[in-house]
Design goal:
- There is one protein chain.
- This protein folds into 2 domains: 304 residues, no CATH class; 155 residues, 2-Layer Sandwich (Alpha-Beta Plaits).
- It contains 22 helices and 10 strands.
- The strands form 5 sheets. A two-stranded antiparallel ribbon has the order 1-4. It has a two-stranded antiparallel sheet with strand order 2-3. A two-stranded antiparallel ribbon has the order 5-6.
- β8 and β9 form a beta hairpin.
- It is elongated and about 100 Å long.
- 40% of the residues are buried.
């Protein structure tokens, strides 16, 4: 067996990208360095959403030069599929069976239909298709809703065992940010990805994933590629059986470069040096285009025309699917500018949910409409409120859905306004003094004013309120709070209360009457 240098390099780089990103998503102690969120910013869809020209240019050049290296090294869901496929191969090997693939025809119509649909929906500001198909966002939801809870429960088990031996070096952690729906969606995504990887290698990447389809178009023109030499190839099929993208046709002695993810598994299988990864001009040999170029072009054009035919209906779909405005709208994170901006840019990767220090960001269900499903929103009921100067979510968001804020900007960003329901307040209903909401308001937007006798009732000054939830989280009324935050569709800049100016008085000029 030949030593596969390129494969070794690829595996090393893939682990260097995958492991820190996985740990960062699963980090429930916030001990990992914040700079690791940079690994999320180099993902293709976040770079597109953010409009990062530098990263997009670098990924484009990387694909033009070396093919779909992104899919086999940088994309965390791609690496996860490889890990699953590797375990599948190991299990079969233990059972006396070798893991073998076979050439399969490309799913041209399906892959390009999904790609065009995603592009068209994004143009109209609808992220739902991308939310379900983006590999990075799917990986984020899988990591946050499945792997992270497992890590937390593992920590709790270690804590329980340690306590038995009077070791107090660990502590119990509680999961606040998981919902039944988010857990279900993550489990479904993992099941689909795992089954396709187990049975068909990179089928998900080459038939469903819009990122794989987009990079597949570019990789047709890649400078370095897998090439079969017809003069040396004996059509033994060894390389074909090792190709997890199922893009090598040993009979025709061709490789479909649009589906090749540059895993290099095939290179050390050939005994006649009939296959190599080398410099080759795009389309320099007709047989390298296994599919008839006219047929592929025709399929793509037909797909595009079919997708374009849906254009008149997209605004109508978007309009009818809007959440009922009479209901409570989601409170979007500080820095998200507005509900419209957030829905347009967020792909629900859940990175902000993981690293929210107060654990008040949670994935939404369908209660805010299908366009907002699984995206994070602020909730203050169970635990805490949005820290007055915390800017973590704005610093790590890779999609540009949450713009970076300084601590000073955050302290005056109004994401909602407190609304007081006098009939639920214990001061009104029980004639009992309270004032907890006022005491916990960091901007002094809630003030206690005279009511009856010595009793006082809270009054909200809208211009000072930033919607941090301090008042709502501390309100003792159950099950519905007497004061709660109502979202504002467009974030505003709140005013700061001016401290009372104490006039300096010249003591020599005071007349006390004696």
């Amino acid at each position: 067996m030949k030593f596969n240098t390129l494969k070794t390099i690829r595996l090393t780089l893939a682990l260097l990208f995958f492991t820190p990103l996985l740990l960062y998503f699963c980090d429930f102690t916030n001990i990992l360095p914040p700079l690791l969120h940079g690994l999320a910013h180099i993902q293709l869809v976040p770079a597109i959403m953010l409009g990062s020209v530098g990263i997009l240019t670098a990924l484009f050049l990387l694909t033009v030069l070396f093919g779909r290296i992104y899919c086999s090294v940088i994309c965390p869901l791609g690496v996860l599929q490889d890990i699953i496929a590797w375990f599948a191969g190991r299990s079969r090997k233990k059972n006396g069976k070798k893991r073998r693939f076979a050439y399969a025809k490309p799913q041209t119509a399906l892959r390009y239909s999904l790609l065009v649909a995603c592009v068209l929906f994004l143009i109209f500001g609808i992220t739902a298709p991308v939310l379900y198909l983006d590999p990075y966002s799917n990986f984020g939801r899988i990591a946050v809703n499945l792997f992270r809870p497992l890590a937390m429960e593992g920590n709790n088990l270690i804590n329980w065992i340690a306590l038995k031996f009077n070791n107090y070096g660990f502590y119990h952690v509680t999961i606040y940010t998981i919902t039944g729906l988010s857990l279900t969606i993550a489990a479904v995504a993992l099941t689909v990805v795992a089954l396709t990887a187990f049975l068909r290698g990179r089928l998900f990447c080459n038939a469903v994933c819009p990122v794989g389809s987009l990079l597949g178009i570019i990789s047709k023109f890649s400078v370095f590629r897998i090439v079969l030499d017809p003069s040396k190839c004996t059509s033994c099929g060894r390389c074909e059986k090792a190709c997890k993208s199922q893009c090598i046709d040993s009979k025709e002695k061709t490789a479909d470069t649009s589906r090749c993810v540059a895993c290099f598994n095939c290179l050390n299988k050939c005994k006649s040096d009939g296959i190599a990864y080398r410099f080759a001009l795009p389309f320099s040999r007709k047989q390298e285009l296994h599919d008839n170029p006219h047929t592929s072009r025709r399929s793509f054009l037909l797909t595009g025309v079919g997708a374009m035919a849906t254009l008149p209906f997209i605004p109508a779909w978007a309009k009818t699917a809007t959440a009922d405005r009479t209901k409570l709208t989601p409170i979007t994170p500080p820095g998200s500018k507005s509900l419209t901006h957030f829905k347009k840019h967020c792909t629900a990767c859940h990175l902000c949910i993981t690293h929210c220090p107060q654990q008040i960001l949670k994935p939404a269900g369908f209660n805010f409409g299908w366009e907002y499903a699984f995206k994070p929103h602020l909730t203050f009921y169970e635990s805490a409120f949005c820290n007055y100067e915390c800017t973590v979510c704005s610093e790590i968001c890779p999609n540009g859905a949450i713009k970076r804020l300084t601590a000073e900007e955050k302290s005056v960003t109004q994401i909602g306004i407190a609304r007081f329901d006098i009939e639920r307040c214990v001061v009104y209903s029980d004639r009992t003094s309270c004032g907890a909401c006022s005491e916990h308001c960091p901007t002094r937007a809630v003030k206690m004013e005279p009511y009856e006798g010595a009793l006082t009732l809270p009054r909200v000054y809208d211009e000072l309120c930033i919607g941090c939830g301090g008042c709502e989280s501390i309100c003792p009324v159950r099950p519905v709070k007497a004061i709660n935050i109502q979202a504002v569709d467009v974030h505003q800049t709140a005013k700061k209360e001016q401290d009372e100016q104490i006039e300096e008085v010249d003591g020599d000029r005071l007349d006390f009457g004696f």
